[in-house]
Amino acid sequence: MEEKIENLSEIYDLPIADKSKTCCFTGHRRKALPLCAKRGEPGVGKYVDLIYSEIFCAVLDGYDTFITGMAEGVDLICAEILCDMNAKKICGDLKIICAIPFPGQLDEDIKLQSDKELYRRVLRECSRALYVSPCRSRDVYRRRNKFMVDNSSRLIGAVNLRNRRSGAMQTVNLAKKAGIDSHIIDLGANKDFYLRSDGTIDNAYYRGLDQT
After folding, report:
1. What global pTM score does this model have?
2. Where are the beta strands (DSSP E) in 60-109?
């Protein structure tokens, strides 16, 4: 699949798509998500359903191209939703663009085998994939975030707005400065997102309240 991935430094037909019809995503990685995005937990299903609804609404508003940053967590959740929508032909042929921050992201930053398999699936099914930077560096994720915002007119995010120092919030702030239409699901504001299958609420929700 490596031969499919372009280098941004070698691409001269920017922007990479019609910006008015392009949407990008932001959100936390798995460990910072309610219940660590564990499949089967009722709370996880609730916020994944909201993400699906935001993507579907974007399609209804005329968006047909979506940029994912390919990190485990919200990025891959969004990408999987799009792959499933395309497989079921729910909204026609939606274009998926993979903005990979650097070569080696899969091996270095994706830990769970299920996430690795999903990553590979998204690469197989995407319309276009590119490396934003040629190698890993301190600001490599910030450069990816800026690239996505620069090439989009809408942002869909699933973010705990209390976590103001996260990379996801960095993207939210970049979008705000750029005047992009932002649709943000606040993961810290709804305790239903922390609902376990045994009917209890995960303590992470209450710890978040104590920090405000």
Report:
1. 0.92
2. 65-68, 95-100
Rounded Cα distance, 82 and 56, in Å: 9
Domain 18-210 classification at class level: alpha beta
- The residues pairing with 97 across neighbouring beta strands, listed in sequence order, are 67, 128
d(CA 109, CA 144): 15
Could you say which DSSP state residue 202 is in?
P
What are the residues facing 95 on neighbouring strands? 65
Query: For residue range 123-142, what is the model confidence (pLDDT) as tens digits?
Result: 999 999 999 999 999 999 99
As a whole number of angstroms, the distance between CA 184 and CA 70 comes to: 18
The per-residue pLDDT for range 159-173, each reduced to its tens digit, is 999 877 788 999 999
Give the single-character DSSP code of 135: S
Q: What's the Rg (C-alpha) of the chain?
A: 17
Query: Which pairing describes strands 65-68 and 95-100: parallel, antiparallel, or unpaired?
Result: parallel
| Buried residues in 167-201 as b, exposed as e (16+ CB within 10 A) | bbbbbbebbeeeebebbbbebbebeebbbeeeeee
Q: How far is it, in rounded angstroms, from Cα 41 to Cα 157? A: 20
- Judged by DSSP in three states, 112 sits in coil
First to last CA, the chain: 45
Domain extents for the chain?
18-210
- State the helix-helix crossing angle for 74-87 and 113-125, rounded to 10 degrees: 50
